[in-house]
Amino acid sequence: MSPARTAPMSSEELKWTAVCKLGDILPGTGVCALVEGRHVAVFRIGDSGIHAIDNIDPRSGASVLSRGLVGNLGEHIVVASPLYKNHFDLRTGECLEAPEHSVRAHHVRVNGDDVLIALA
Amino acid sequence: MKIVLVGHGMVGHKFLEELRQLQTPGAEVTVLCEEPRVAYDRVHLSEFFAGKTAEDLSLVAPGFFAEAGFTLRLGSRAAAIDRRARTVTTQDGVTLPYDKLVLATGSYPFVPPVKGSERDQCFVYRTIEDLEAMKAAGAISRKGVVVGGGLLGLECAKALRDLGLETHVVEFAPRLMAVQVDDEGGRILRSKIEALGVQVHTERNTVEITDGRSARHRMVFADGTHLETDMIVFSAGIRPRDELARQNALAVGARGGIAIDDHCRTSDAAILAIGECAAWRDQTFGLVAPGYEMARIAARQLAGDAQAAFGGADMSTKLKLMGVDVASIGDAHGRTPGCRSFRYADECKQVYKKIVVSADGKHLLGAVLVGNADEYGTLLQMALNRIALPADPEFLILPSSDGKAKPGLGADALPDSAQICSCNNVSKGQICAAVGEGASTIGEIKACTKAGATCGGCVPLVTQVMKAEMARLGLSVNNHLCEHFPYSRQELYHLVRVGEIRSFEDLLARHGQGLGCDICKPTAASIFASCWNDFVLKGELATLQDSNDYFLGNIQKDGTYSVVPRMPGGEVTPEGLIAVGQVAKKYGLYTKITGGQRVDLFGARVEQLPAIWEELIAAGFESGHAYGKALRTVKSCVGSTWCRYGVDDSVGLAIELENRYKGLRAPHKIKFGVSGCTRECAEAQGKDIGIIATERGWNLYVCGNGGMKPRHAELIAADLDKAGLVRLIDRFLMFYVRTADRLQRTSTWRDNLEGGLDYLKAVLIDDSLGICSELEQQMQHVVDTYQCEWKTAITDPEVRKRFRTFINDPRADQRIVFVEERGQIRPARAEERPIVENAEVEA
Ligand code: SRM
Ligand SMILES: Cc1cc2nc3c(=O)[nH]c(=O)nc-3n(C[C@H](O)[C@H](O)[C@H](O)COP(=O)(O)OP(=O)(O)OC[C@H]3O[C@@H](n4cnc5c(N)ncnc54)[C@H](O)[C@@H]3O)c2cc1C
Ligand code: SF4
Ligand code: FES
Q1: Residue segments in chain B with a per-residue pLDDT below the cut of 70
Q2: What is the residue extent of each domain of chain A?
Q3: What percentage of chain B has pLDDT greater than the value 70?
Q4: How confident is the model over B196-207, as pLDDT tens digits?
Q5: Residues B477-488: tens digit of each pLDDT
Q6: Which CATH superfamily is B122-236 part of?
Q7: Is B677 known as a binding-site position?
Q8: Residues with CB under 6 A from ligand 1
Q9: Domain B2-107+240-302, CATH
Q10: Which residue of B has its CA nearest to A117?
Q11: Reduced to 3 states, what is the DSSP secondary structure of residue B831?
Q12: CA of B176 to the centre of ligand 4 (A)
């Protein structure tokens, strides 16, 4: 999987799925949502809002990234995989320690109280 | 060139190491080692009583002889030398030719010619065999006497006391440590030693040892008094082993010892002598540092460096005897003509300090420090490097009551050539070079320069030099936790405690920056838990927990979790075991007995955890904290209840302790072991806290480790009653919680602790920092506020809600696939899994 994103589409072309209410995610943590059969980790971070990346940790193949600790490393807002502690940028999906293990980052939108995801 | 070394002791081995490093071409080396084992660290011999084994004390790196190509003959004593034929013959008749012979035969303990000194249960203190015999005798003795109140005698007295004996020291001279300390210092030293429960008898000349009435022996003194005892250890000085020299008409010193010149050559140029057996200018040296220097000189001589010369040695010493600091530097007795001295004595705190300065008042000649030797490093360097004294030299030893800083000697004031570690001849320049190459902890400095690795006396100064150099290179001594907090874990702990900070948000706002990360968040969570002990998943605290703590289970490679119910002391009822089995069966969990004496159930999916725990709790179980940096298990042996050797109830104590400390969060996990007798079936000496029952109570061992780098625990206190034991463990654990780095087990913490075990004893037993009652209170708070995290979690609907795989779908994670093996499940390997992309759920 590469961090390269598909060409940006306009908001209307994206297929949005409402996954949960904002209040369902404890600020500073993540949850896993099933979006069109794909495991997506959705994080809620202080001021920078909602982020979504794949939930599957490429190194182990386990569906766990939403259970990692979030924070920042320099400019990057990251989650640390709970298994081997490698860090993923929440905005791009890039794996900072091993770029070949990067994941896809997905589109997010908050509509009123609803959290919506569109696969990238 | 054929080289034969006679004697493989400390100095002999140093010689071999040097020789190997110099890579002398064509050297064929044979070593005659009289003892049944290779060289070991005699300086730390007493640690044998604290649980160190002969292997721990060994100075020889594995594979040394094979790699160096040296031949070792163990248990082989040189019996005769033929100087004309240049051969050595061993006691079992082997004759070896030599081109160069190196004698490193050390010393033997002097036993005064007293009638009865050859009786059973009379010992000397020199070899591992001596200590083994003493240990065996100690087990069947109540009272012990050390003859000789010098440096070694006092160390030996400590060993007897640690063996649990009523201990006496009998000294011929009017004071203890007569060589190093003056009258007034000797007086203070004596009262300190007596306060520690060792009885001192000075001016006693033993004339005879006979049968005793109340004990095995009666020692009769010249003044008509007597003392009864079960065992006696002679420590009345040492004599050089120069018998080979005497047999072969080699010159010996006026007071014995094989005479050597500045190049360590004896009167026969083909024979060299080094270490305690050698006499240089009629002087022998009973310390290891001068011996090491001779070893270096001799090796360089043989490698062809004819210039290498021995220039005498500084006999300054600093030691800690039973927690009492004693140091002596240079001309401690003020024998230099015209010298003058300054003295300071505090009979309340039992501190005595004296400095001897030159007639012109410009230089320090000597010093005596008793009770507190903090200034040792500074004073020694001033004396050795002839650094000009400040105008009021008395301030060097006066306590700084007026807030005026002492005219300390910054490491900067030392020349690069200043020798910082005398045991290993390491200069300030070498330490600075090591810092330049990246060493930034005392452990790294030890590893690459050996500074501080022998007697340890120089460690404070080495640390000071290291820090000063790091500061000079602009390498701030960086112990910052991470980019979000410019503090060490210990500092953060104090900020939390003092500022009564209870949330990460508050901590970040007051002392940090950014959002935090997977380093500082769990660290903060652990500190909050140690200080305030709130439920770990309460509100914001939940967001700080590592995945394991967030789900109260250990995450496995496939994203499932393990379930470990607590079984205190490893004890479990049949009903309990059945209940665990039923849960495992119902949820299809893989079941295994752990190395920690309990049962682990693997393969639980996150959404199954609350239901599983609900059933376990109903059956009377609690969280085992297998996931936390917290107390794990207290391993026990079956003890006196069943075992025919047990002397106390180890299971009962283990359960009590596990229940007391369960839930305690710490910088890393903590494990205990409790054994019912010295057979040690619970392997307590491999645990952070180890307890072994004795006839008189409990021995407490600390800082052991069994994992990546096994380390034997050390005896910190003996024969404690249960209340005293618990009090000391409270203090120990809280002090560890306060001061350790993140993810530092007690063993590494201990290895990095300046002052080592003696410092720990001073803080935790003598209360030198005055914090013991605070530590106890803090522990009591943790004990009083314990809750089973799983019980709280399953009864709180908000928390319970978080245990689910998908936020928007009730199904389980289809990617988790098990296969069967030996009748149980295990995670499927990649090639055994159905082919699934990221998506696999077809609706
Ligand atoms: C389950 C168990 C192995 C077993 O099947 O027997 C085990 C399993 C793990 N051990 Fe262990 N250790 C287990 C007993 C031990 C022991 C034996 C003992 O406790 O007597 C040791 C050596 C003793 C010691 O700690 O000194 C041990 C030394 C380690 C170490 C090395 C620690 C060290 O400081 O040297 C690690 C790594 C670490 O903690 O950083 C480790 C780490 C782990 C981890 C947590 C690794 C991980 O992150 O996945 C394993 C996961 C446990 C789980 O999922 O529940 N485990 N581990 C044992 C659980 C004991 C229990 O009931 O809680
Ligand atoms: C309990 C204790 C504590 C000490 N504490 C300190 C301290 O804190 N600081 C300090 O500086 N020093 C201390 N010392 C002193 C230090 O241990 C010695 O200075 C050092 O060991 C001397 O080394 P060596 O090689 O000369 O002698 P040793 O280490 O005694 O080695 C000599 C070896 O030669 C062997 N040998 C003798 N004759 C023959 C022969 N004919 N053939 C073959 N082998 C032979 C002996 O068996 C022995 O193994 C302490 C000593 C003891 C006993
Ligand atoms: S390395 Fe050891 S402790 Fe870690 S999972 Fe494997 S067996 Fe268990
Ligand atoms: S002075 Fe002994 S280890 Fe440094």
Answers
A1: 400-410, 476-478, 835-843
A2: 17-118
A3: 97
A4: 889 999 999 999
A5: 667 888 899 888
A6: FAD/NAD(P)-binding domain (3.50.50.60)
A7: yes
A8: B 554, 556, 562, 564, 592, 594-596, 598, 600, 626, 632-633, 635, 671, 705-708, 745
A9: 3.50.50.60
A10: B808
A11: helix
A12: 24
